[in-house]
Amino acid sequence: MTPAELRASLERDGFVRIPQVLAADELHRYRGASQHIVDTARKGEWPYVRTLPKQFPPWDAEDVQKGIWGVQHLLHPEMPGRDVFAESYFHEKVVDVVVNLLECRRDDLVLELYNMLCRPDHDFALRWHRDNIGPQASAEEELRHLQEPIIHAQWNLALYDDSSLIVVPGSHQRARTDMERGADPFEDNMPGQLAVRMNPGDIVFYNNNILHRGVYNSSIERMTLHGSMGIAKSDPERARNILQHGIGTWASKADFSNIPPEMSKLAQGMQSRLISMGSGHDVGFTHQD
Q: Gene3D superfamilies per the record (predicted)?
């Protein structure tokens, strides 16, 4: 796809899938690092996890015995395999798409979130939501948020087959309908819904304020790298969207010196721009469940 086609697809549908961005050796390496940290997390030996059945941050590591559905902070300085994860986050093909979608320079980019969504210990689903707009928002509030300029790009990079992401295409351009607003939060047949099907090595970029949910099958292997990058902008809402996940508490300690030089230079610049946003101790949370 050309840059214009990428932007047009994202603007029209709210998501765009790019097939096979990873080479076979990269896929093998990322799977190995991912399997190791998932095993570590399930044993309670990594404190930053998404625990069942809680849907949104903050999560409590003491609940790990209830099972997990994700691993947080893949770029954390104490993360096993962090250099491998850093190479996947700052991957040239990923960054190229981000720059094209945001129509910015690499020097404008800010380090944001990098987590992994994994097979849950029991079947699990997220309710319908928009990431940065709470469920009680009025139609007017929704439209105000949805009409704001896009200042970050969010993606899922699948290491195995993945059809967990369910979206309502085009819903990022409008307020919820009366049916959507009144529907059961876990409605299985929302009008117009689409399961985004990904093969290993595919990446999907999506507007995180599209109406979407996740449906996770505990019998199907899942390791999907879930990241975002943005461009510099300072306001309380922007800070909350990123820092509510806890990245501000360790970002200044992250070390990117062991990845390829050009990647390392980009990473350090993005890191410094994130640090300028603050620690995130008092930004609050978008969702309460």
A: q2cbj1_9rhob like domain
- Residue 215, strand partner residues: 125
CA 92 to chain centre: 18
Whole-angstrom Cα distance, residue 127 to residue 149?
26
Q: Which phi-psi region, left, alpha or beta, contains residue 139 (left: φ > 0; alpha: ψ -120 to 50)?
A: alpha
Which residues touch 43 (CB under 8 Å, ≥6 apart)?
none
58-110 tens-digit pLDDT:
999 999 999 999 999 999 999 999 999 999 999 999 999 999 999 999 999 99
pTM of the complete model: 0.92
Confidence of residue 280 (pLDDT cuts 50, 70, 90): very low
> Strand pairing partners for 230?
110, 152
Domains of the chain: 3-275 (2.60.120.620)
Residues 6+ apart with CB under 8 A from 95: 106, 109, 229, 266
